[in-house]
Amino acid sequence: MNKAIKIILLLSITLISNQLLAQKFGYIDSEYVLNKHPDYKVVQQELEKLSNAWKKEAQDLDAEIKEMYIQLKAEEVLLTEEMYQKRMQEIQKKEKTSQEFNSRIFGINGQYFQKQAELLQPLQSKIYDAIERVSRKNNLAMLFDKASVPSGIIYTDPRHDYSEFVLEELGIEDNN
């Protein structure tokens, strides 16, 4: 009888410890959460305005260069070699200015991407904080992002999708 109690006690301790060691995993779709957030639409509109203004400026530079080429071609027969070379240098200088502008604005570390990061940072912080709160509330050991590249997630069971919980934590209702 004493052995039976010890075995039952040992089994119950084992079962309890296994439950304590069990880790919960889940995932979210950050792209879905971002697209549902009203502030994201405002950020996108502001970036669109900036982008359009900068694109217009770049197009104006390109149009000016094209016009310079057309004018040079039309006056080519009237120009001396020295005058022709001077105009070509002006055109090349303008092309270089255009390339520098495009690189400065739309390059890898350009103003467009810096502005995008600046505008999205507060929103991403809010979402990250909500994700952290959802993870803690649901005792999740890990929460993956389905939208991240490369996510490595091949299959997801909708039961483990915590995106709606994050939206709820942010106070956003699903208005499909």
From TrEMBL:
<dbReference type="InterPro" id="IPR005632">
    <property type="entry name" value="Chaperone_Skp"/>
</dbReference>
<dbReference type="GO" id="GO:0005829">
    <property type="term" value="C:cytosol"/>
</dbReference>
<protein>
    <submittedName>
        <fullName>OmpH family outer membrane protein</fullName>
    </submittedName>
</protein>
<dbReference type="GO" id="GO:0051082">
    <property type="term" value="F:unfolded protein binding"/>
</dbReference>
<dbReference type="Pfam" id="PF03938">
    <property type="entry name" value="OmpH"/>
</dbReference>
<keyword id="KW-0732">Signal</keyword>
<dbReference type="GO" id="GO:0050821">
    <property type="term" value="P:protein stabilization"/>
</dbReference>
<dbReference type="InterPro" id="IPR024930">
    <property type="entry name" value="Skp_dom_sf"/>
</dbReference>
<comment type="similarity">
    <text>Belongs to the Skp family.</text>
</comment>
